[in-house]
Every structure is written in structure tokens, then in C-alpha cells.
Amino acid sequence: MKDENFLKEHNARQLWHPMAHPGEAQAHPPRIITGAEGVNITDIDGHSVVDAVGGLWCVNLGYSNDLVKEAIAKQLYDLPYYSAFAGTTNPPAIEAAHAVQEFFADDGMERVFFTSGGSDSVETCLRLSRQYHRLRGEPTRTKFISLKKGYHGTHFGGASVNGNNRFRVNYEPLLPGCFHLPAPYPYRNPFNETDPAQLAQLIAQAFEDEIAFQGANTIAALIMEPILGAGGVLVPDQSFMPMMREICDRHGILLISDEVITGFGRSGDWSGARHWGVKPDMMSTAKGITSGYFPVGAALMSGKVAEVFEGSTADGTISHGYTYSAHPVGAAAVTACLSETLRLNLHDNAAERGTQLYDGLRRLSEKHDLIGDVRGGHGLMSGLELVSDRAKKTPLDAATVKRIHDATYDAGAMVRASGHNILMSPPLTISEAEIDTILTALDAGFAKA
Ligand code: PMP
């Protein structure tokens, strides 16, 4: 590794960072993370902390799973690359597709289309949902409906259904025909409705109204996260997703469950939709599929969708795919990662430790007035919404959020600051003591606000 001065200088000179201002690397250099073990990361100064972010909601197995690392290394020597475009395939891809399909069989998923990440998986679901309707003789069904606060990646399709202006405004005009419903967000919503079940009803009604307004025969799909992650960990009422499913069915609209965060155990069950007793038509996945050890995603299709493509004429050709779709090394990572995820029953630990984290955060909110809302309680995804005035719910200023974030890091935990939210999604292998470390570090962080 080059020395520290080289790394700092060239980070500012050559490397542009996602979701960061390229002019800021000099004034506010990012932390250089040099190593990781278990659930801990170490920076270039030798400071080691619990990674309460799990990379980016992805390192479900923690950083030290040798089985996954060995599977990747071995595959690099056996066959480092071959494409799965029409005409060829490779053994690890076939094995991985089998593993993924079995993993989500109880969600009704029957076919697997590999991608290179979450944005690709979303794009795949959006594009194939249009083709599905075209194949069924309804080519007018092209529009998409999604939730405000939803996050669906950064491709043009994903950004168009994204429900957070921050990720849209610089790249407009986006895809036409995308419409957004209010989020299941009792703390702030246009109805001033604080009861989650009542709010769910109101959003379902808004969905019905939007369908009536647009015309059901123009709408291809509803895309939603079962629990909204990047938008601030918004956990809807348990009635919400089943109601949305029923409305979709009644109007011939496909339901795409964006499980990029919630899939593979993070929500306390193997998928987020299963948590709410819903079977989607398509699922977009990534992150936990390889625990971040290799960039892979997958778009999954139910039997209902598969049947239409497979029984069709030449128009059913999937004119869509990525050079790295079904990459053999990524596929080897998937098979090993899913086998480990199942062996360790990670969803159980996510549920148990998730409750511990959520309860601890609620106790912190009794002590620190800057915490306006505490969210989570369903697996290892939690969020704090920070305010300078609880009664007025005034969002906390960025400088104070950063101070809390940095002081928490100094005290032993990396958390994620996103707008005026602090988000947490640690590895699903985390122990009781390590959750306590996160809570103690946050307490110290707030004390320095
Ligand atoms: N969908 C959801 C629900 C996500 O949380 C994310 C990423 N956080 C994406 C899609 C995009 O995934 P990626 O960053 O791997 O492209």
C-alpha cells in the first residue's frame, strides 16, 4: 500500500466519490478505511470501530467469512469470466440461480436474472414489467407508481421512481409517466395522520385515486420497499403492503418489491415482503446476496411473470442485460454467501439484535432532545430523525449532525448521516455486546452535540 500522504493527496486529486461534492475532498478528506475484521473496521490512523452501517447496508455476514472469500478466490482460478448472454452460460451461475430461487421460493419467485447491483436490478424489473404487459397485449401499460421517500438507485428508471428530490433534481428531466404516493411516514405526512394504520388506509386510497386518474390500463407497476431504508427507515403498518398488493391485483398492476436492503434477512425475515405476508410479482435484490464481497444483484420473477415470457413468441426475447450478468466469480460469491446466511440463520439474529438496538435508541431519545423520532424494530435497520426543536420538528442543521456523527465515530461506532437522519444497519452477525458499543458511542456522540 502507498503511504498515507500519497493516498490523501491522490484521493483529492483523482477520485470522485458517489454522493459527495468533488470539491470537498481537499477540505474534508474522507476517512481511509484500510482493514476490517468481524463487524469492525479500521482506518488509516489505526482507529477501530464497530461498523454500524455494515458497509452500505450490505455486509450481512461481517467482514471475516472465509468460506465466501475462498469461494471467490477459487473461482478466479477456475474461470474468472464468461458471459451468460444468449448462447453461453457457466456452472457457478447455474448453481447460484438455483440457490437464489430456493432462497425466495416461499415468496413465489421462480426465475433469476443476475445483475451487477441494486440499481441494475431495479432497472431490470422496471423494463421487464413493461415488456410483460406488451407480451400480454397491453402495450399501453407503461407508467410506474412509487412512494415518496423510496430509494431505488441511480439509473434513470430508478431515479425516476425515486421519492427523494435530492437524488432527482440535478438529473431532470427524468422518465415520463412516473407518479409518487405519500410515504408511510407517521412523523411527517400531508394528512397529519400519526396513526400508522390510518395512514396506511389514506395512502391506499391515494393509490386508488391515482389509478382512477391515470387509467389502470396505462400503469405497468408499483415499485416499493417493504420497509423504506435510505429514506429514513420508515416501517409501515402491517396492513400497508397487503393493501397495496390487493389494489395492484384488482387493477392488473405488477407489484415490484425492492428488496435490495430488506432481502436476505436484514428485516428479521428472509425478505421484507414475507414480513408482511405478501408475495410480489418481481423482486429487486443486491447487497446481502454477496454481503458486499463482490458486486452482484438479481432481479427475480414470479411464476406468473415467467409464464408470460416463456410462453411468448420472439417478442419475449429479453433485450436487456449486463456484461457482468451471471459473472462466474460473483455467482460463486452468491452461492457461498447464501449457504452461510442460511447456516447462521442470520434473520433470527437480525430480529433479536434489531429489537435490542431499537429499544436502546428509544432509551437514548429520552435523554437527548435532538432525537425527534426513533425508527426500526424490524430487524437490523434503524434510524433516528434529528431535530433542533421537538415541538416544531425543525430538521437539525447539517453541521450539528456531522458533529454528532464524528463524535460517535471517535467513541467507537461508524453510523451513517443522511440529511438530518442517522441510519444504522450493522452486519447481521453482530453480538449483544457490539450493539451496546454502538449505543454507548451514540450516547457519547450526542453528548458532544
Ligand atoms: N434499491 C434500494 C432499496 C436500495 O437501498 C439501493 C441502494 N441503497 C438501491 C436500490 C440501489 O442499489 P445500488 O447502490 O447497489 O445500485
UniProtKB/TrEMBL annotation:
A GO MF term: transaminase activity
Key words, A-Z: Aminotransferase, Pyridoxal phosphate, Transferase
Bilayer-crossing regions: none
Keyword Transmembrane carried by entry: no
Entry annotated with the keyword Transmembrane: no
Gene3D superfamilies, sorted: Aspartate Aminotransferase, domain 1, Type I PLP-dependent aspartate aminotransferase-like (Major domain)
PROSITE patterns for the chain: AA_TRANSFER_CLASS_3
Pfam family, one: Aminotran_3
Cofactor: pyridoxal 5'-phosphate
InterPro entries per record: Aminotrans_3 (IPR005814), Aminotrans_3_PPA_site (IPR049704), PyrdxlP-dep_Trfase (IPR015424), PyrdxlP-dep_Trfase_major (IPR015421), PyrdxlP-dep_Trfase_small (IPR015422)
Similarity field: Belongs to the class-III pyridoxal-phosphate-dependent aminotransferase family.
Protein name: Adenosylmethionine-8-amino-7-oxononanoate aminotransferase
Source species of the chain: Sagittula marina
